[in-house]
Amino acid sequence: MSAVSAGDDVRTRLLAAIPRLSPSGLKVARVIQHDPSGVAQLTVNQLAEQSRTSTSAVVRLAKTLGYDGYPQLRLALAAAGSEDGSPVFATDIHAADELSKVLHKLTAFETEGMLATAELADPAALEAVVDALAGARRVQLIGIGASGLVAMDLAQKLTRIGMWCSACTSEDDALVQASLLEAGDVIVAFSHSGETAGIVEAVEHASRATTVAVTAGDRSKLARAAQHTVLVAGREDGFRSAALASRMSQLLIVDTLYVGVLQRTPSAHAALHRTYDAVANRRTKGVR
Fold first, then answer.
1. Where in the sequence is the domain holding 31, given as residue range(s)?
2. Which residues belong to any copy of the HTH rpiR-type domain (predicted)?
3. By C-alpha distance, which of 213, 149, 117, 189 is closest to 109?
4. Confidence band for 223, pLDDT divided at 50, 70 and 90
5. How confident is the prediction for the chain on average, in pLDDT?
6. What's the CATH number where 61 sits?
7. Domain edge (last residue) among 75, 91, 107
8. pLDDT at 247
9. Which residues contact 63 (CB under 8 A, 6 or more apart)?
């Protein structure tokens, strides 16, 4: 590619490439993501210095993205940033985008979110939460809206392996159930912002139980109220509201916690087989 074409979407290219980048390429990509307009003004040497890599790493990234070299990548960043007067990485899905492009962008966005979540989540916090869940007498999961769907997903998974748990998706129910928790119980609260009043209050009411927050707000009220906080990534902007931005990152944490509990619960595999067998005949009934 020798020239920048109209509508060249450098952001989508970069996000799609992140999973296959080398460590040095990822460092360069992060600098570009942080300040794309500023990077468009940098020489290859300056970008290498800012990313603490090498000029060859910068050039390799440019070629990975489909450009002939770094000068073409700079032009793409400058052009994309000036199309509507806003920085290239401040935009996401546009109303006029074709569905095929929407699908491509969403794939890149969600991949970025999950990769960032994998970097953000503290392994020690994950281990502590899994240990608490595996030994819990009762598990209460709470969340509102899109976060409520995530709470229900974890409830379904844990129930299938024989754990006593439930999910609350309204503030009143969350407050009631949280107030009944005792020592040995665990409450896991899902909130992207960490500022949903009812969710924060429910965690505060569960003073006898082990409290866990799954949130993108590392300094939020929910994070401060909980004993353990698992951070997730996910921006909320434009068409990509919280229902899209945070759900996949939260579900990644849900699956991680579930697998961790499976690993620590000897009876879990037997419970999975029993619950599968219980509904297997219903799946095949009437099939010839």
1. 10-91
2. 8-84
3. 117
4. very high
5. 85
6. 1.10.10.10
7. 91
8. 86
9. 69
